[in-house]
Amino acid sequence: MYKKILVAFDNAEKSKKAITTAVEIAKYSKGEICLLTSVKMPSFISAASPDMLKVLENDSRKLFTEVLKEYEDNIKKEGISASSVILNESPGKAIVRYAEKEEFDLIVMGSGNRGSIGRLLEGLGSVSNYVLQHAKCNVLIIKN
Fold first, then answer.
1. Quick one: how far is CA 123 from the chain centroid?
2. d(CA 18, CA 14)
3. Residue 20: what are its φ and ψ, rounded to 5°?
4. Which of 11, 13, 22, 29 is least surrounded, with the fewest CB atoms within 10 Å of its CB?
């Protein structure tokens, strides 16, 4: 059974659905949920000044602090233990590292569904693919 569930959250619709799915799993298994996000800016933004990157990351941290608190409170209203964490490292690596360190049983996350052109333009690989390939626990990808 899944007692410790990590939800990777980026405020996209699929990650919101990942929370809903994790809540249903946690209700059934009497588990707990941790919401995780990363405020690390993608590598293609590295052309920006270090000061600008710091401002962007700080603004993201403020936004996610508020958003995650609201989701955390709603999860707790369902009778489920909930927490959240905001990291500042590459999202895929952050998810995998944190899941392993904290011994999560399951990672739930949305699929980005970006095409190869989108990945090329963004300079990013698929976070969900990275997690699938590197996580040592089960991973549930929300597709729609």
1. 19
2. 6
3. -60, -45
4. 13
CA angle, residues 24, 107, 12, in degrees to nearest 5 = 80
Q: Are 95 and 46 in contact (CB under 8 A)?
A: no
Structure tokens that stand for 5 in this block: 């569930």
* Interatomic CA distance for residues 38 and 98, integer angstroms: 11
pLDDT in tens, 88-120: 998 999 999 999 999 999 999 998 755 444 444
pLDDT tens profile 10-67: 999 999 999 999 999 999 999 999 999 998 876 556 566 777 778 888 899 999 999 9
Q: What's the farthest any 2 CA atoms get from each other in the chain?
A: 48
Q: Please state whether beta strands 32-38 and 106-110 pair in parallel, antiparallel, or not at all (unpaired).
A: unpaired
Give the domains, in start order, of the chain with CATH numbers.
Answer: 4-142 (3.40.50.620)
Phi then psi for residue 34, to 5 deg, are -125, 125
Residues 6+ positions from 29 with CB-CB distance below 8 Å: 1, 2, 3
